[in-house]
Amino acid sequence: MEINLSAGLFTPEKNFLQFDESTVYDTVIVGGGPAGLTAAVYCMRKGLAAGIIIKDMGGQVAETAGIENYLGFRYVNGAELVDKFREQVLQFGIAFREGATVTSIQDGSVKRLVLDDGTSVSTRTVIIASGKSWRRLGVKGERELTGRGVAYCSTCDAPFFAGKDVAVVGGGNSGIESAIDLAKVASRVVLVQNLDSLTADRILVDRLGEYGNVEIIYGHGVTEILGEERVRGVSIRSVGTGETRNLEVQGIFIEIGLVPNSGFVKGLLEMNESGEIVVDSACATSRPGIFAAGDVTSVPFKQIIIAGGEGAKAALSAAEYILTQK
Amino acid sequence: MEINLSAGLFTPEKNFLQFDESTVYDTVIVGGGPAGLTAAVYCMRKGLAAGIIIKDMGGQVAETAGIENYLGFRYVNGAELVDKFREQVLQFGIAFREGATVTSIQDGSVKRLVLDDGTSVSTRTVIIASGKSWRRLGVKGERELTGRGVAYCSTCDAPFFAGKDVAVVGGGNSGIESAIDLAKVASRVVLVQNLDSLTADRILVDRLGEYGNVEIIYGHGVTEILGEERVRGVSIRSVGTGETRNLEVQGIFIEIGLVPNSGFVKGLLEMNESGEIVVDSACATSRPGIFAAGDVTSVPFKQIIIAGGEGAKAALSAAEYILTQK
User: Fold this and answer.
1) In this complex, do A159 and B313 lie within 8 Å of one another by their Cβ atoms?
2) CATH number of the domain at A24-133+258-325, out of 1.10.10.10, 1.10.3720.10, 3.50.50.60, 3.30.450.20?
3) Is A283 a catalytic residue?
């Protein structure tokens, strides 16, 4: 049992701790996706007094059907991977709060995080890993069938639709990239665009034109996703005539964008035009002692392993910052 | 068997392929550590015609005793994790070469990689993930006991020395940081420095002074690492008098630096003063179509999950580059 080697340091019996309002933590992590959870493991291993505030454990990972591109696992489903991440963080005595949202941060040499229930937490450094949310269609069936035919990430999930008929919603770059990813593996791809033309880059549209199994339906919006256990079709309605018809598909990729969960630090931190927090290569933001990692940041490509790597960087940067401040 | 969902795309029976000298690959990856192997998985999933040239499978991971900070695994040893990475890459039909070294790259719209056996490989893009090598002491017992008491990464391995006596070699920043990491968990830490003073930053030296269980031996070098199955001591020799004595320790951390494996692209790519390849946040180097990822680059902090994340970024950048060039 190699694990016993470290028994002096980490006792699995130690469980999540309550936050203590009178303590000044070394670091508090906001977010419980791969970036936040990896940051937590690194902070605890560096011996920091750390806490983590999580709205949804696992973040977008929890909504992903299957994962084949996280090194170490040939195949793992989203919920399983979140369980493993959770268990790994759980072994440490980290202050923990689930189901809560940070509404604002008061900056200073000690920073104060205000939560939606009116409580607050004091800390020397903050690691913001609050992620992005997929922009949702907001139609019937969408939430119920997420992970069961409703998908948002073609890089993650396209291979699971090999040989199937699938719809893609959205005519921007991510919609077309998604349709290309799917055209390679799916039997048929129907791209549904509410405008009369595509808004994606010309080069992407040309590439999509090379595939014979793609049909584009212009001037239509999706009004409902059909199916009980799994997606079996979508209802679309003409923007012009209001006429409705059904498409028989086994999957639907909703590619109408992602929204960074950065509203609570608007005005405090430098952001780009998409509302992503701008970070340098060590995950530092525009304010000393505030670090950010993962999908909420300006780092390109949104993937589990990338977010994890950024979370580790942010934690090590926070540890270095504390070392130079004390 | 969820894996069957993707059977149309990935057949596990497909094995590693030979490189074909007449083919122009979409991308060729140089290096088989976490960055290179993650890049391989992402390239194959993007449908690229890819190859990978590996000197040592697993890179530094293969030399790491135990890993507790790679999310998804509470504890895994280096060799096991390398096996999992290998198996995950093996499922794809990737051109593969092990035990070979790239000696130079001829740039152009098609790039030519020249190998140490005189063969060459043509490709549109290159992902350099050749890593770093620990600078070794070069003394008896070092190679034989690596992973069995001889360690190089305190962030990775310090917790395994809880309650033990351990030596650290090197009085620069990484030596002192390592000694601090170890002072928190080890019973006793002996820092061996060949000069008469430490060269680390003042603040780090001050921090180290706060620990009562650290002894510093100046003006001595390590001449041999003792032990059969595991480390049981080290021989040190006075630089002044030439006198030799033994220290009884169960571990030794060698912290005399890391050397980036970037010699084969010297003059071709922009590097920093440490010989690391300079990359932007999307892993692009100073030459179009040449990307770099992991420890060989200027990205701070050298960790498995960080290297993996960077490998994914490099692969997605290469895929984007190819899409815009074709």
Assistant:
1) no
2) 3.50.50.60
3) no
